[in-house]
Each structure stands twice: as structure tokens, then as C-alpha cells.
Design brief:
Number of helices: 24
CATH architecture of the largest domain: Up-down Bundle
CATH class of the largest domain: Mainly Alpha
Strand content: 5-15%
Shape: globular
Distance between the termini: 40 Å
Radius of gyration: 30 Å
Structural class: alpha+beta
Largest sheet: 8 strands, mixed
Number of strands: 10
CATH topology of the largest domain: Vanadium-containing Chloroperoxidase, domain 1
């Protein structure tokens, strides 16, 4: 539904989509902006919609190429017009390393750097500016600019269209797969951003703090001052790298202890576990399952042991005995520690996978061992390589570990907290080992040979292992139903209490109370409510989106903001104007699928839905735009909804659930076809005018208990 809405919006507003691609391609080539703006992602994402007919490839190629030409052209003009003074002006003055890399790149490749830089992350947004400051010939620049922009546009638009075409071929699962691809893009883009920040920006930050700390240490004749003076000695060339490792050690230990505390205390992170788990389970498809199972198998003990043996043999050939000891300790301690913590805490997995002895979840052994092994090897290899290769090594190791970690959550083998704890412990242990290893003299590891050995063993053994175990693991990690069954009579009497009392957002926070439960098909509920004036909300579009920018927009003309409940998307949303103030107030009903099916004798099962009904009130901000605020009164909207439903019962939760605006009441609604409810007599609330132009009567279905 979500993807269909996006496709319909783009198809109806193609000019907006083409304009967005033009701006994205232009911004991608601008100094500083191009480093942080996700221009490539936008171009690829909209190009993927070409397969659905929402946009056309030829106009996309034209606007992408035009944007790329204009971006480089603006950058070149700025450099040619303002010369080197622009480099010393904000915001470029804050990024001296960026301009230095651009100058070095241009000096190395000459005029052809304009073409090469277009496809080189890190310098493509600065090289045209450098070409202008160095007075490159305009004729030569614009020729290379045109050629590179055309090739760049072709590769990106066609690549995006190819991805979109492959998704269309999937048919019914195309929507979920497309959302899954977007999730992956966002996730791995974030991982790359973090790695680049650690490799490039953290050393500069620590270097800026070095001199103030050294002056403080020299002015304090204490044990701490003397130790800091020794550590911060300017003659120690290895200090910046060790400082980065120290920061990683402290930061990752802090994260690990925080996750452990949240798990033991049942803090919001534990509730976020369920939300993230259920969100990913809704996005699962057959194609993605096959890929994720193969990735998770790269973290299996068989592959890890093979990689360890291969790299240990390389270190032995280099006579690096200390490296052998430290690498062995990285894997052995990470494996032992996670196993001990699992048996100590005995935290259950989302799915029951594997043997009973290994069914505990916290923390993730796959993630911790992979992080410790590849993290340690990446650090010692990057230590011996030139600066330009350090980012590549860190990115490769980081993406491999991140992929294994993500696969564990996606396949339902671990909770989010399990993986976060595994990553944090593995990084802390790898950093500690690397600090101890690098502080003393040691034979070189031979970074190129070590990296080649690692990659070769991973590919060879990983391919063999995936080929042998994939079929079995596909069954092991198969999507399992999370629903449970109860009788309709039990739900009507006491079973409703087992469903969530509050909506839980994606980060585990408690939101508004769940004041409505519905047993039956959503179509029957929609018919009931439609007869009482409830309507579907305005759909999201360019026009309805701009309505938020109007100072006097009627609240019923505003689309409803989407909400997640424990990772589930809404399955039904309806709105109703509030009598007396239809311009500024509305009631909003949201329903999500629960994990409960109601069993009826001889009639199969009936779906059970949980939901919220709230009052939203519009507010004007300085007569410039409209915002909607939820009113903290949940009893009135619930009574208004009950007035439109028959039969229904008002059930009351314990006093501990009561809060300001909620008396703990939950409205239980059902269809007349739901029979065999005998345990309790329904208790209906008195009809009220809250939210309705006229009150509803209290009619009963034939056959219902009285």
C-alpha cells in the first residue's frame, strides 16, 4: 500500500519527480553539499520507478545529465571567479582536508580528473572547484564535464531502472521488496557515514584536544598529569591512531553496558526489539530471505574458523607470533564471553532456532565474533597502509560485519539489542587488543597479503559452506507465524487483557493507550462507521501535503500522519469531524493487526485488531502553517466511537493503567456474526455527543447475550 501510494504520487506529479532528480544531480556536484547530500540515492530511487510507468527513462536521462553538468559548471565557475579566496571562505574553510585531497587528485590526474572524479566518492564535489582555481581551460573543462555527466547519468538512471524492473518481476511482493531495498540503502549508507566519520573526522577532533590536554597535564604535577604527559608526547607518531582506538574502546564499552542495563531493566530498548523485529518480518520476501541466509552463513563457525586458520598461516609465514596470539584471543574470548553471557541471562530468541542448548539470544555470537575478528584484522592492516587505503579497509570490514549483524535481525534469529551488544563488545575487544598489540614493536603483518588471504578464504570457504548448508538453513530460518489463537468467548471475557495497553513506537516508547479492539473483518467495521459519518482520510499527495503550509486549512482536509505500533503499519485509518468545531477538530481511528486469531466452533478463525481513537486539534503557527496536536483525552473519543458500534462492551483495565485522560477503559467491538460469546454480558457506554453530530442508539444483534 505504501509503495503504491508513492508510485501513484510520482505518476501524478512527474514534473515534481523530474525536478527533484535535477536538484539531486546538481547538489551531488557542489562543494561540501555533495559530500553530505544523498543525490545518488535520490536519482537511483526515482529511476527505479521507471519500470512501473510512473516516470520515463528519457526525461530522467535528460534532467540527470543537465543537473550533473550544471553542478560541476557552478563549482568550476566559483573557482575560476573567486580563485583561491573561496577555499579560505566558509564553509570550505572548515574542510581543509577535502580541498587538499582535491588538489592532490587534480595534480595527479590532470585534466582527465574532471571525468574520473565524477565517479570517485570523496573528491567529485571538490575537483571542479579546484580546476577553476587553477585556471583550467573552459573549453577543455566543459567538454570533459559534458562527457562525464552523460556517462554518469546513463549508469545511474539505467541501474535504477534495472533494479526497478527486477522488483516488478517479483509481482505481488514487489512492494515489500522495494521497501526492503530502501531500508538496506538507508542502513548501509548510515554505516558508511559512521565509518568515514571515525576514520577521517575523529582523528582531527582528538588532535584538536591533544594540545589543551597536554598543557593541562604539564601544569598538574600528579600521577594523572605525568601519565597524560607521557601519553601526549608530541614525538610519539603513533599517538593519533592509539587515541582513536582508545575513543572507540571507551565509546563501545559505554554502549555495551547501556544495552545490558536496558535488557536487564526492561527499558524502552527491549520494546524497540519487538517493534524492529515485527517491522522486518513484514518486509520479508523469498528473494531477500535467500540473500540474508547466505550472508548470515558467512558468520557461521565453519567460515570463521577457516578464515582464522588461513590468516594465522599468513601471520606464521610472516613470523608474526604476537599477531597469532592476539588474533586467536580475539575470536576465542569473544566466543567464550558471549556463550557465558547467554547462559547467565538466558534471554529467549524471537524464534526458536537451533538446539535447545544454544537457543539463548543475548548477545549475538555471530555479530560479536565477526566484529572482534574482522575489526582486529582491519585495524592492524590499516595501521600499515597509506591513508588513502585506510578508509577502504575500514569500510570493507565494517560493511561485512554490518551485513552479518543485519541478517541476524532480519531472519528473526536475534533481537536488535542482541546485535547492538554483540557489535559493541566485539568492537571494544578488538580495540583493546589492537592497542596492546600496536604499542610494542612487532613484525609487519603485510597488509596487502593479509587482506588478500582473508578475502580469498572468505570467498572460497564461504561459497562452499553456503552451497552445502543453504537449503537446510532456509528451512531453519523460515518465516514463522507469530499469531496465537484464543476462543472468542475467552477474548470477550478476559483475553482482551493480554493485548497491549499502549501503542509502542519504533524506538520502544509508550504512546497513546489502546482503547479499541475489534473482532471481525475490517470491511464490516468500515460499513458500520461509514453509516455514522466516519470517512477515509485525505490521501497523501502534493496538494494535500501543501495544505499543511496553509494558515487556515480545515483539519479534515489534512492527511493523517502514519503511526507504527510495535513495527506494524496501520491497516485501517478513518476520521470524523467533531461537532461544533469541524474546522479545527477531528477524531482519528487507527487499527493495527494483532497477533491473535479468535477461534469459533465450526466457523474457523476471526482476525482480531487493536487500535486507538484520539482527538486531533489543529493549530496555526504565526499564520504561516498548520500543525495538528493530539488532545490528551482518550475517554471522550472512545465513547464517540462506541456510539457508532453495536454490539460493544466496555472493559476496564486495572487502576495501574489509568492516566490523565484515560480511565483504563477498552472498547470491545464485534460483528453480529460472532457467536458463542457467553461468558460476560456486554456493558455499553452511554451514547454521547462527543465527536458526532447526532448520538447513536444502543441496539443489539440477535443472539447476543443480554
Amino acid at each position: 500500500m505504501f509503495v503504491a501510494t508513492i508510485i501513484d504520487f510520482v505518476r501524478a506529479h512527474q514534473a515534481f519527480a523530474y525536478g527533484l532528480v535535477l536538484v539531486a544531480a546538481l547538489a551531488e556536484a557542489l562543494p561540501v553539499i555533495g559530500v553530505i547530500f544523498p543525490g545518488e540515492t535520490i536519482v537511483l530511487s526515482i529511476s527505479a520507478l521507471a519500470a512501473t510507468g510512473a516516470v520515463r527513462i528519457v526525461p530522467l536521462l535528460v534532467v540527470t545529465t543537465m543537473g550533473a553538468i550544471a553542478g560541476d559548471g557552478i563549482s568550476y565557475w566559483l573557482g575560476r571567479h573567486y580563485h583561491r579566496s573561496i577555499i579560505e571562505t566558509w564553509p570550505l574553510s572548515r574542510y581543509p582536508a577535502l580541498t587538499a585531497r582535491g588538489e592532490e587528485f587534480f595534480q595527479l590526474h590532470g585534466g582527465k580528473s574532471i571525468f574520473i572524479a565524477r565517479f570517485t566518492p570523496g573528491v567529485r564535489a571538490i575537483v571542479p572547484l579546484i580546476a577553476g582555481t587553477l585556471a583550467m581551460s573552459p573549453t577543455r573543462f566543459y567538454l570533459l564535464n559534458l562527457l562525464s555527466a552523460l556517462v554518469w547519468g546513463l549508469t545511474h538512471v539505467l541501474a535504477g531502472a534495472a533494479v526497478g524492473a527486477s522488483l516488478v518481476l517479483v509481482g505481488a511482493v514487489a512492494g515489500r521488496l522495494m521497501i526492503f531495498v530502501i531500508v538496506l540503502i538507508v542502513f548501509f549508507t548510515g554505516i558508511i557515514w559512521v565509518i568515514r566519520a571515525v576514520v577521517r573526522r575523529l582523528p582531527a577532533l582528538l588532535a584538536a584536544l591533544r594540545e589543551p590536554l597536554r598543557r593541562w597535564a604539564q601544569s598538574h604535577n600528579s600521577w594523572l598529569g605525568r601519565q597524560l604527559s607521557s601519553v601526549l608526547d608530541p614525538t610519539r607518531k603513533e599517538l593519533p591512531g592509539l587515541a582513536v582506538l582508545g575513543a572507540l574502546l571507551v565509546g563501545s564499552l559505554w554502549v555495551f553496558m547501556g544495552v545490558v542495563q536496558d535488557v536487564l531493566a526492561g527499558d524502552p530498548l527491549v520494546r524497540a526489539d519487538l517493534a524492529v523485529f515485527q517491522l522486518l518480518q513484514e518486509l520479508r520476501t523469498g528473494w531477500a530471505d535467500k540473500i540474508m541466509v547466505a550472508i548470515t552463513e558467512l558468520g557461521d563457525p565453519t567460515v570463521v574458523i577457516a578464515v582464522v586458520l588461513a590468516t594465522l598461516l599468513w601471520l606464521a609465514w610472516r613470523r608474526n607470533w604476537r599477531g597469532i596470539i592476539y588474533e586467536t584471543a580475539a575470536v576465542a574470548v569473544a566466543s567464550l564471553f558471549t556463550s557465558l553471557l547467554k547462559f547467565t541471562l538466558q534471554h529467549a530468541r524471537p524464534h526458536s532456532v537451533g538446539l535447545a542448548a544454544t537457543s539463548f539470544s543475548f548477545p549475538s555470537g555471530h555479530t560479536a565474533v565477526s566484529m572482534a575478528l574482522y575489526g582486529f584484522l582491519a585495524i592492524v592492516a590499516a595501521w600499515e597502509t597509506p591513508r588513502q587505503w585506510q578508509l577502504a579497509i575500514a569500510t570493507g570490514a565494517g560493511l561485512l560485519v554490518a551485513a552479518i549483524a543485519f541478517s541476524r535481525i532480519y531472519l528473526g534469529a536475534h533481537w536488535l539489542s542482541d546485535v547492538l551488544a554483540g557489535l559493541a563488545f566485539g568492537l571494544a575487544w578488538a580495540s583493546l587488543l589492537a592497542i596492546a598489540y600496536l604499542r610494542r614493536p612487532r613484525p609487519p603483518v603485510g597488509a596487502a597479503g593479509l587482506s588478500a588471504t582473508l578475502v580469498a578464504s572468505l570467498l572460497i570457504v564461504g561459497t562452499l559452506h553456503v552451497g552445502q548448508a543453504h537449503a537446510i538453513d532456509m528451512e531453519r530460518y523460515a518465516l514463522r507465524s507469530q499469531s496465537r489463537t484464543m476462543t472468542s468467548a475467552r477474548w470477550w471475557s478476559e483475553g482482551w487483557r493480554t493485548l497491549p495497553a499502549h501503542r509502542i513506537d519504533l524506538i520502544g516508547g509508550f504512546e497513546e493507550p489502546m482503547t479499541f479492539q475489534w473482532a471481525g473483518n475490517l470491511s464490516s467495521l468500515m460499513r458500520k462507521l461509514s453509516a455514522r459519518g466516519w470517512v477515509s482520510p485525505v490521501s497523501w499527495s502534493l496538494q494535500s501535503g501543501f495544505a499543511w503550509l496553509l494558515p487556515h486549512a480545515a483539519v479534515m482536509n489534512l492527511p493523517v500522519l502514519p503511526h507504527l505500533e510495535s513495527g506494524h503499519q496501520e491497516r485501517l485509518v478513518m476520521v470524523h469531524p467533531v461537532a461544533g468545531d469541524v474546522l479545527n477538530k477531528r477524531l482519528v481511528l487507527r487499527l493495527w493487526q494483532s497477533n491473535v486469531e479468535l477461534a469459533q466452533s465450526g466457523t474457523g478463525t476471526t482476525p482480531l485488531w487493536i487500535g486507538t481513537v484520539v482527538e486531533e486539534r489543529s493549530r496555526r503557527i504565526a499564520n504561516l502553517l498548520t500543525i495538528v496536536k493530539q488532545v490528551p483525552d482518550y475517554d471522550g473519543p472512545r465513547r464517540a466511537l462506541g456510539a457508532a458500534l453495536e454490539p460493544h462492551r466496555l472493559a476496564m483495565r486495572d487502576n495501574r493503567f489509568q492516566q490523565t485522560g484515560w480511565d483504563g477503559g477498552v472498547l470491545l467491538g464485534t460483528t453480529c456474526s460472532l457467536v458463542n460469546i457467553r461468558d460476560h454480558s456486554p456493558r455499553a457506554e452511554s451514547p454521547v455527543k462527543h465527536g458526532f453530530l447526532t448520538p447513536a442508539g444502543n441496539r443489539r444483534c440477535s443472539g447476543m447475550p443480554t
